[in-house]
Specification:
The chain is of the alpha+beta class. The chain has 4 domains: 74 residues; 98 residues, PAS domain (Beta-Lactamase), CATH 3.30.450.20; 68 residues, Helix Hairpins; 157 residues, 2-Layer Sandwich (Heat Shock Protein 90). It is built from 11 helices and 13 strands. The strands form 3 sheets. The protein has a 6-stranded antiparallel beta sheet with strand order 3-2-1-6-5-4, with helices on both faces. Strands 8-10-11-13-12 form a 5-stranded mixed beta sheet. The radius of gyration is 35 Å and the shape is elongated. The relative contact order is 0.06.
């Protein structure tokens, strides 16, 4: 009798545990079903297992459609004339199209396994572009010389342009463009112009000497005409000299820079004294703010030339009785120099081109006096700053609304 009671008691407990497990299982199925379907589908009077089976089939169909769409996008990306690669938060290559593999000489990447970008491509600039994009969470553009493998031969290098943009979960996508043909054509054009300007320098100097001599022997009105001619010839001589200087700095800056320790205050004083007569004509003053008694390593003549050109540009775009702000900020290992005028500022379409050679800006910001420069002043500023491993930027200042030119230089010579 006791054994029979024990049997039935165990049976009841077992049946209870069974139905309890069935209930838990149904609850989990219902949770899964709630995740897979909308509320309307749950109102259909079907067994729970049937509903889950139907939702799984629909999910498989949806995943299949998404995979087909993804494959279609991959096929499209393989056809575009730009390289594309995508890396995860650990810089493992998730995908790259055929054009990227060709441009970057990638031979060992397999789509079914993850590989570090560094194992496939040795490009410091590409790594920096990706890291900068991930850190800033903003689109970035960079142009650099790429040397396939360990080959440092300039004849075998490629000029690449990368457009990187941030994605979810720390991933970064990069479009890569081979601009070697454009780069080579630009170099040939610049070389041709440099050769031409070099050939023009001697005859222009000779003509200038002739006009200088004629000025002493002629009377008005002929003397005025010769004086005007002499001014224009001097402008052409300045143009040729500055063009050659920019070309030399771009080609091999190390050969054209004489580094020494300099006091910034002294450079500012010398540079402002050169342009001060122009400032006095318009009653424009200089307001020097920020760090003083700062030392920097650089080429004295070149950096003085930079400040003169920046001051000259600010004076010529400043209204009368205004003030030019010179703000110097000392950063870790860097020096920031800001020159801000009170003029009308740069047109938005001009900002990307401010430092291009001979670029013609918006007429509203054209020179307000009758003097003419070479059109290369800011281009020369950029060439000198880049030769010092620095950078130069153009903005419109939010307070004065005037032009804002910012120079950032390393305080010590960069090897």
């Amino acid at each position: 009798m006791v054994s029979l009671i024990t049997f039935f008691l165990g049976l009841i407990i077992g049946i209870g545990i069974y139905y309890w497990q069935i209930h838990r299982f149904n609850l989990r199925l219902q949770q899964i079903l709630n995740l897979l379907s909308d509320q309307g589908d749950n109102m259909i009077a079907l067994p729970l297992i049937t509903k889950v089976r139907r939702e799984i089939v629909q999910l498989q169909e949806s995943l299949g459609e998404q995979q087909e769409e993804l494959d279609a996008w991959k096929q499209l990306f393989n056809q575009i004339p730009l390289g594309y690669l995508q890396v995860d938060q650990d810089n493992q290559v998730l995908w790259c199209n055929q054009k990227a593999q060709t441009i970057l000489r990638i031979t060992e990447w397999k789509s079914d396994q993850l590989s570090l970008l560094l194992e496939l491509v040795r490009s410091y600039e590409l790594d920096q572009l990706i890291e900068s994009t991930r850190y800033s969470q903003e689109n970035q553009v960079k142009t650099w010389q790429f040397y396939p493998g360990d080959n440092q031969d300039h004849n075998q290098s490629l000029c690449l342009k990368g457009h990187a943009f941030p994605l979810l979960h720390g991933e970064v996508g990069v479009f890569i463009e081979d601009v070697q043909l454009i780069f080579a054509e630009t170099k040939r054009r610049e070389q041709a112009i440099s050769d031409l300007t070099h050939e023009l320098r001697t005859p222009l100097t000779s003509i200038a000497l002739v006009t200088q001599t004629l000025k002493k022997r002629l009377n008005d009105p002929e003397k005025r005409w010769i004086s005007k001619m002499h001014q224009e010839i001097q402008r052409l001589i300045t143009l040729t000299e500055e063009w050659l200087e920019i070309s030399q700095l771009n080609e091999n800056p190390a050969q054209h820079l004489n580094y020494q320790t300099l006091l910034l205050d002294e450079l500012i004083l010398i540079s402002w004294s050169v342009v001060e007569p122009l400032a006095e004509q318009k009653q424009v003053t200089l307001d020097y703010q920020g760090s003083k008694n700062v030392s920097i390593e650089g080429d004295r003549c070149r950096l003085t030339q930079v400040l003169i050109n920046l001051f000259d540009n600010a004076i010529k775009h400043s209204p009368e009785h205004s003030k030019i702000l010179l703000i110097v900020n000392l950063l870790p290992e860097l020096l920031e120099i800001n020159v801000i005028d009170a003029g009308k500022g740069f047109a938005s379409e001009d900002l990307p081109h401010v430092f291009e050679r001979l670029y013609k800006s918006d007429p509203s910001r054209s020179r307000q006096d009758h003097t003419q420069g070479s059109g290369l002043g800011l281009s020369l500023v950029k060439a000198i700053i880049l030769a010092h491993q620095g950078e130069v930027k153009a903005y419109n200042h939010p307070d004065t609304q005037g032009g804002w030119l910012q120079v950032i230089l390393p305080r010590l010579q960069v090897s």
